[in-house]
């Protein structure tokens, strides 16, 4: 079967590799020269280090992602904790969640008991964990409503749940669906001890995707970069082809000014692994007003802002630190994670659900990051920022409120041979890399079944 996959992010490459393993003839179209979609990176020209368009937290519960990396010969790029360990700082000092090697969920309970937390917060956390493990999935409720139902105090929200929930969902508890947080919490913290440990990448996202692409090509797959899909052709209710404009791909072709070439790729099946907002423009106009396609604009978008700073000395002493009571929620020591010793220290800050930060000038955001370092890390007193970059992703994820959960489509569409993949599809998860990979695998299974 000839299958065209549109998009070379995690969803698209997962679908492509899985389809190729089933011996289909697979072509992947990527409109850009760099791979990764909304989880990509670039090499900084001045420092030579990888810079992600957003440092995403991954955990051991990302079983499909780890499987994809194994199948794509990229598992060596993962740096995994032995056990869950997260440092937090605020004006009161350092607090550490360090979970011992006990069976889940006792490892989490023991870790919470040893944190620097008020006793009432510990009891409230236990009450929420019990509700999540043995209660319902709170359909239709926001996460803020779930917190109120389980008696979570402002202290618990500030010290525990607020930062964690916003990082997981890229949305505030007042707007996010409780069911999505419950699913992640169950999978990551209540099922298996190793599922909760943090995973880091030794290189940038684009490097991971290049490794996956190499495995795909080595097995006979075709990946066309700078190939702009212009439309999916439908005949008698089923997919027949994809119109594509191939632009100059190599540096030599770009320098030579090679003109774009339009072509039509025949296809027995098409997997659209693109953002929700890109689906409609690729369809015949008559289909755009039909479900599920007409509902996709209502998924909206939630922004992420990330900042990368290079300091002239070491200031942050852990690979990841949560920053309480700060606009900057998390800071990663990318240099340490990448295995580099010595200055400069390369730090990456993340602002999730960054509605307020999105419009702020770069200089203000950099100043805010520098201020939180000076506020929480004494070693910053004499340090200087040598370089700073600010990256914005206005639609980093879909808006995961309860009202949109019923709008997320599965892989099957009303068009025979046309399938959908992406973290925004109905995976049961929020917009995560794991959700994207699962959707790609599911789309491949559905293509194979001919559904």
How is the largest sheet built, in terms of strand order? 8-7-16-17-18-15-19
Radius of gyration: 22 Å
| Helix percent band | 25-40%
How many domain modules?
3
Under CATH, the topology of the largest domain can be stated as FAD/NAD(P)-binding domain
Give the structural class: alpha/beta
Quaternary state of this entry equals: single chain
CATH architecture heading of the largest domain: 3-Layer(bba) Sandwich
Overall geometric form: globular
Report the sheet with the most strands, covering strand number, pairing sense and barrel closure. Answer: 7 strands, mixed
Q: Alpha-carbon distance between the termini?
A: 14 Å
Note the beta-strand portion: 15-25%
The number of helical segments is: 15
Task: State the total count of DSSP E strands.
Answer: 20
Query: What top-tier CATH class of the largest domain fits best?
Result: Alpha Beta
Which residues form runs of ≥5 with pLDDT under 50?
A: none
Give the CATH H-level superfamily of the largest domain. FAD/NAD(P)-binding domain
Architecture blueprint of SSEs:
Blueprint: E1 2-6, H1 10-21, E2 25-30, E3 41-43, E4 50-52, E5 58-59, H2 63-71, E6 78-80, E7 85-90, E8 93-98, H3 106-114, H4 119-134, H5 143-149, H6 154-169, H7 178-190, E9 198-201, H8 205-218, E10 222-225, E11 227-235, E12 238-246, H9 251-255, E13 261-266, E14 269-272, H10 276-279, H11 285-288, E15 302-311, E16 320-323, E17 330-333, H12 334-337, E18 345-352, H13 355-358, H14 362-376, E19 385-397, E20 418-420, H15 433-449
Parallel strand pairs: 1-2, 1-14, 2-10, 7-16, 14-20
Antiparallel strand pairs: 3-4, 5-9, 6-9, 7-8, 11-12, 12-13, 15-18, 15-19, 16-17, 17-18
């Amino acid at each position: 079967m000839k299958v065209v996959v549109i998009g070379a992010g995690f969803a698209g490459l997962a679908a492509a590799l899985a389809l190729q393993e089933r011996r289909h003839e697979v072509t992947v179209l990527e409109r850009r020269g760099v791979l990764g979609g909304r989880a990509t990176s670039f090499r900084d020209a001045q420092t030579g280090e990888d810079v992600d368009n957003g440092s995403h937290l991954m955990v051991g519960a990302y079983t499909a992602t780890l499987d994809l990396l194994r199948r794509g010969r990229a598992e060596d790029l993962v740096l995994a904790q032995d056990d869950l360990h997260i440092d937090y700082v605020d004006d009161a000092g350092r607090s550490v969640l360090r979970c011992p090697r006990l069976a889940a969920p006792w490892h989490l309970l023991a870790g919470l008991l040893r944190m620097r937390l008020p006793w009432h917060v510990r009891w409230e956390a236990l009450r929420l964990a019990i509700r999540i493990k043995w209660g319902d999935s709170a359909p239709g409720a926001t996460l803020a409503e779930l917190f109120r139902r389980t008696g979570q105090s402002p202290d618990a929200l500030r010290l525990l749940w607020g930062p964690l929930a916003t990082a997981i969902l890229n949305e505030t508890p007042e707007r996010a669906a409780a069911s999505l947080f419950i699913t992640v919490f169950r999978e990551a913290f209540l099922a298996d001890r190793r599922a909760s440990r943090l995973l880091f990448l030794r290189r940038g996202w684009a490097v991971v995707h290049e490794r996956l692409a190499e495995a795909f090509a080595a097995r006979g797959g075709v990946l066309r970069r700078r190939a702009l899909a212009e439309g999916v052709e439908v005949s008698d209710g089923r997919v027949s082809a994809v119109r594509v404009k191939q632009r100059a791909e190599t540096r030599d072709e770009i320098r030579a000014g090679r003109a774009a070439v339009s072509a039509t790729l025949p296809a027995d099946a098409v997997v659209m692994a693109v953002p929700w907002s890109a689906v409609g423009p690729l369809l015949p106009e008559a289909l755009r007003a039909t479900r599920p396609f007409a509902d996709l604009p209502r998924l909206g978008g939630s922004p992420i802002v990330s900042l990368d700073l290079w300091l002239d000395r070491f200031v942050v002493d852990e690979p990841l630190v949560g920053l309480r009571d700060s606009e900057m929620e998390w800071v990663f020591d990318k240099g340490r994670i990448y295995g580099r010793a010595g200055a400069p220290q390369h730090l990456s800050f993340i602002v999730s659900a960054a509605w307020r930060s999105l419009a702020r000038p770069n200089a203000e955001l950099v100043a805010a990051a520098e201020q939180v370092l000076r506020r929480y890390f004494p070693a910053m007193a004499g340090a200087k920022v040598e370089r700073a970059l600010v990256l914005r992703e206005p639609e980093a994820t879909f808006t995961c409120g309860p009202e949109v959960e019923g709008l997320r489509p599965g892989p099957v569409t009303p068009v025979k041979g046309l399938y959908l993949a992406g973290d925004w599809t109905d995976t049961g998860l929020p917009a995560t890399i794991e959700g994207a990979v699962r959707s790609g695998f599911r789309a491949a299974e559905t293509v194979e079944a001919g559904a």
